[in-house]
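Standup notes
- DV: blocked on the single-chain target, sequence here:
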Amino acid sequence: MSSTTVICRAVRGALISLALGAGIAGVTPAHAADAVRAAATVTFAVPAGPLGTALTMFAGDAGVHVGAPAELVKDVTTAGVTGTYTVGDALQRLLAGTGLDAVPAANGGYHLRKAVVAAADVDAVMLGAITVSGKAPGSTTEGTGSYTTYSTSSSTRLNLAPQETPQTITVITRQRIDD
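- DV (later): unblocked, structure below
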């Protein structure tokens, strides 16, 4: 047993005794133990591999219960976690890239669920190339051989046919100039 574990257990015991002895309203031994567990750091050595096996090792090192339906962790692997972390940080590192989240449970442990993906976290979808032109379709007359345009946006900034434009317009096309 490492010296960190011994210190954590001693601090947890002292806080629980203090909370019970001082009669702090609303503080139960479970609440005090949860607070100590959340703040304490533990050294983890959970290797990469199947998530079910890794969670069992993690729970043993952390001294917490981690519950998950078997079908949720089936065929899921983890990169593991090695180093000194708080229990919450270590569990996040253990679950990184698995698509799962840990939700704190009432008993001080954790329950796994599928990760909820926020809109900002979704990978961008690559669309095909989009051509943006300052001209509305039908407003360009070059190369058409036409003496008029099919649409204009000169008076209302709306793409309207010449008949729908509320003022007189004169269109001088390339073809008219050439002729």
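- Follow-up: The first strand starts at residue 41 and ends at 46.
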